[in-house]
Structures are given as structure tokens and as C-alpha cells.
Known about the structure:
By secondary structure, the protein is α/β, with parallel strands linked by helices. It has two domains: 8-202, NAD(P)-binding Rossmann-like Domain (Rossmann fold), CATH 3.40.50; 210-299, Orthogonal Bundle (N-(1-d-carboxylethyl)-l-norvaline Dehydrogenase, domain 2). 47% of the residues lie in helices and 13% in strands. The chain has 13 helices and eight strands. It has helices spanning 25-36, 48-69, 74-85, 94-97, 112-125, 141-144, 150-154, 181-193, 209-225, 231-242, 248-255, 257-270, 284-291; strands at residues 17-21, 40-44, 88-91, 103-106, 131-134, 156-160, 170-175, 197-202. The chain has an eight-stranded mixed beta sheet with strand order 3-2-1-4-5-6-7-8, with helices on both faces. β7, α8 and β8 (197-202) form a beta-alpha-beta unit. α1 crosses α2 (48-69) and α2 (48-69) packs antiparallel against α3 (74-85). It is globular and about 55 Å long. The termini are far apart. Mean pLDDT is 94; it is low at 1-10. Bound molecules: acetoacetyl-coenzyme A (CAA) and nicotinamide-adenine-dinucleotide.
Amino acid sequence: SFSTTASSAHQQPTISRITVIGGGQMGSGIAQVAATNKHEVTLVDVSQAALDRGQGYMAASLKRVAKKKYATDEQAQAQFVDEIMSRVSLSTKPTDAVSRADLVIEAVVENLKVKQELFAQLSKAAPAMAILASNTSSLPIGKIAEHLDDASKRRFIGLHFFNPVPQMKLVEVVRTSEADEAVVESAVAFVKAIGKSPAVCKDTPGFIVNRLLLPYMMEAIRLLERDVASAQDIDTAMKLGAGYPMGPFELCDYVGLDTIKFVVDGWHASGEGLAGNPLFAPSKKLDELVKQGRLGVKTGKGFYDY
Ligand code: CAA
Ligand code: NAD
């Protein structure tokens, strides 16, 4: 029976089928973790080559996990990897791939227009009750959902994972002012079911972690620009003096300098409430490195050579 005051929590199906759009660094990690925790996963990318690459990331990461789990037993290691990989199907057709999904997680390139166009299609192709989520690092969730119908806005949230996904325990669950409470609850339950810890927060630029992490990274770059210390010494200082697993320059290289530049430039120019904030002012050093194609670990060079 229906009540006008009851939330739709009871109508929100348990999440078992996940479709992940974008099989790069993040999407392949999300697919891997969901499949490891017994979900049926479809991973989507633009080409077979991109899917092969994503599958390669998953296999390599799962092999590391398997080696830890079954130290000397190679057969058990292979079985572990195969069993998890058997729950992941691959597709280049996003609308087909979401047709039976309980949850769609988008992890494509950090570009508002691309994400908006994608969700315009996905919101029509996915079942009406399916939760729609973006893994964006810096774009407002409400902005990505801006052109969707009201019902789709109510089932649209942020699910922000951290790099490397198999290792990092946090997922930020980003609640827009329009999101249905039942959808947020269901997403929180999903995050726990895949062995991660949720932190629920409002839809503000950078959510929690990146709002604190980006100023830290940019301040480290400015220390270097002022020649206070070398990148190595700053990294050593933060690892040994503050207990961080990576120093700020190692972390910048790990995340990708292009991504960091995209985020701070976007916020400095137009981010709600962040426009003109000196914490996000452009850095000559960062701009130069990006211009030279030194994007970090992924291109073999960044602040460091790899
Ligand atoms: N897959 C599976 N297992 C992995 C793995 C992966 N990708 N990475 C590490 N492991 C496991 C392995 O078992 C590994 O042992 P082996 O090397 O024997 O296989 C074990 O973890 C230890 O790993 P490492 O020796 O490489 O290093 P570590 O103990 O220092 O851990 C780390 C690595 C977890 C990445 C750690 O350095 C760390 O926490 N770094 C900071 C990462 C961070 O801050 N991420 C957030 C970035 S910001 C972001 O993501 C948001 C955004 O929007 C930009
Ligand atoms: P990536 O470049 O490794 O992967 C992006 C993938 O998306 C590529 O395989 C690309 O082919 C695919 N793609 C692009 N357009 C597509 C489309 N229309 N349909 C299907 N696939 C498409 O990038 P990434 O580092 O995995 O980042 C993905 C998202 O996750 C971004 O929004 C990023 O801001 C966010 N994020 C990144 C990090 C990080 O540390 N790298 C951390 C958290 C969140």
C-alpha cells in the first residue's frame, strides 16, 4: 500500500547488476571490486581495444591480490582470478549494457559535455528504478544531471571512488538536493556490500577529499616554485613528518597532472564558491609540465621520471 509520507526505500531493488561506463584506471577498478564482491558487472568502453586494456588492468590487479591470498598455490590463484573475471562482461554498446542494470556508474573522461550526453541516453535506456551515478572528481553532480527529467534527477548521485580502487577503502556518496533518500540509502548499502566505507556528503566542488587534497597539492607545488625545498625533500617531509603513504609530488604524478590542472582550472574559473580562490590559482610549474606532456606515472614522466 502507498503512503504519502513513506520513502520509496522499500521499492528500491537490492543492487546486484552493475554497469560501469568507462574502463580506464577508475572504471576497471570499480568493475573489479564489484565483481570480487559477487556482483554481475558489465564494463563499457568506446572500443574493443579500450575494453581489452581495461580487462588487462583488472587481470593484473587481481593477480596481485591472488598472489597475496594464495601464496604458493598457483592453481588457486588462477581459479580466483578466473572466477571473478567470469562475472564481468564487456560491451561497446552503452544503451544495451544498461538495459538490465540496478546501478549505472559512469567513469569516463572528466568532461561535462561528454557526461551529460552519455546520461541523456542512459537515463532512457536503463530501467526506471536503476540508480544513476557519476565518479566525477570535480564536476557538480547536479550539473551533470541538469538536463535530465525530474524522475532521473531523483535517482542521480555521485559515487566517488579513489585511486587505486582495489586498495582505497573510501567511497564518497554525493547527495544532491534532488536525490531521493531511498536512492542514497541504497547506494550506501552497495558501498558497504563491496567492502568499502561510505562518506555521505553534499554536492559541493571537490566533495570532501578533493576539496582538501587539491589545495594541499597546489601548496606543495608553490613551495617548489618558491624554491623552499626539492620535490624529494618535500615528499620525504610529508611521508616521515606527517605519515602520508605518498608525498604530494608522488601523489600528483599518480593521479595525473592533466587531471589536477583540469580540476583547479575549472574551479578557479567557474566552480561554485571557488571562483578566484587563490588556493586554486594557476601554477606556472604545473602548466609547463602538462604542456610538455609530463602527465605523471601514466606517461612515464611528471615531477619524477619513472
Ligand atoms: N591492485 C591490487 N593490489 C594492489 C594494488 C592494486 N592496484 N596496489 C597495491 N596493491 C596491494 C598489493 O598486494 C601490494 O603488494 P605487492 O606489491 O606485493 O603486489 C600491496 O598492496 C602493497 O602495495 P605497494 O607496496 O605498491 O605500496 P603501498 O603499501 O604503499 O600501497 C598505495 C600503495 C595504497 C597506493 C599507497 O601508497 C597509498 O595509499 N597512496 C596514496 C593514494 C591516494 O591518496 N589516493 C587518492 C588519490 S586522489 C583520488 O583518487 C581522487 C580523485 O578524484 C583524483
Ligand atoms: P581514464 O582516462 O583512465 O579512463 C577513461 C575511460 O573512459 C577511457 O578508457 C575512455 O576510452 C573511456 N571513455 C571516454 N568517453 C567514453 C564514452 N563516451 N563512453 C564510454 N567510455 C568512454 O580516466 P580515469 O582516471 O579512469 O578517470 C575517469 C573518471 O574518474 C573521471 O571523471 C575522473 O575525474 C574520475 N576520477 C579519477 C581519479 C584518478 O585518480 N585518476 C580518481 C577519482 C575519480
